[in-house]
Amino acid sequence: MGIGSLDITPTLAIPDDELVERFVRASGAGGQNVNKVSTAVELRFDLAHSPSLPEPVRERLLAKRDRRITDDGVLIIDAQRFRTQERNRQDARERLAAFIATGLVAPKKRVATKPSRAAKARRLDNKRERSQIKRGRSQKNQWE
Questions:
Q1: Which residues constitute the domain of residue 124?
Q2: What pTM does this model have?
Q3: What is the pLDDT of residues 3-28, one digit of tens each?
Q4: 70 and 76 in contact (C-beta within 8 Å)?
Q5: Which of 84, 117, 118, 131 to pair with 18, CA 20 to 30 A apart?
Q6: What was the pLDDT predicted at 136?
Q7: CATH number of the domain that residue 47 is part of
Q8: In whole angstroms, how far apart are CA 100 and each of 45, 52, 113?
Q9: Which of 11, 106, 13, 132 is nearest to 3 (CA)?
Q10: Residue 126 binned pLDDT confidence (cut-offs 50, 70, 90)
């Protein structure tokens, strides 16, 4: 939507002032570079109190049982896949956008259905057939 914001859809964007980025040293292998350069990004976004998110989207996202969401409703994304701070920052923002996009679509209501009479009859016929086959096996064993 504009400069200084994270665009999710053409109609939904998160302003940069709602995102908190912290640069930390990445964990894992990487030699000298990993020990001296803070390339990993920790992106925090307050889902519960963001004025940019529509209420139904907020509720769907908070209802997800995602371990990245704290008890206070803050989503924390750690990005340390890449060697450069800028690429990790971009990665974290893309992952946040993807996460928010999952809450945009309301899940379809499940419509309860009943099996047809023919389907019930087929099921019972198959059960009877299997029963006969198994009964036949036990009778054979008695004569051997």
A1: 115-144
A2: 0.64
A3: 577 777 777 777 777 778 878 777 76
A4: yes
A5: 84
A6: 85
A7: 3.30.160.20
A8: 11, 11, 32
A9: 13
A10: very high
Determine the 3-state secondary structure of 36 from DSSP.
Answer: helix
Query: Quick check: 23 and 115 in contact, CB under 8 A?
Result: no
Backbone phi, psi, residue 24, to 5°: -130, 165
- Tell me if 109 is assigned to some domain: no
Residue 78 within any structural domain of the chain: yes
Residue 96, amino acid: L
Q: Report the C-alpha gap between 8 and 12 in whole angstroms.
A: 6
Quote the CA–CA distance of 28 and 83 in Å, as a whole number.
Answer: 12
Residue with tokens 């701070």: 85
Q: Is 93 exposed, middle or buried (0-12, 13-18, 19+ CB in 10 A)?
A: buried
What is the dihedral angle through the alpha carbons of 63, 67, 71, 76, rounded to the nearest 10 degrees?
Answer: -110
Output b/e per residue, 97-121; b: 16+ Cβ within 10 A: bebbeebbeeeeeeeeeeeeeeeee
Q: Structural domain tally of the chain? A: 2
Q: Report how far residue 58's alpha carbon sits from residue 54's, in angstroms, rounded to the nearest whole number.
A: 6
Give pLDDT, residue 142: 60
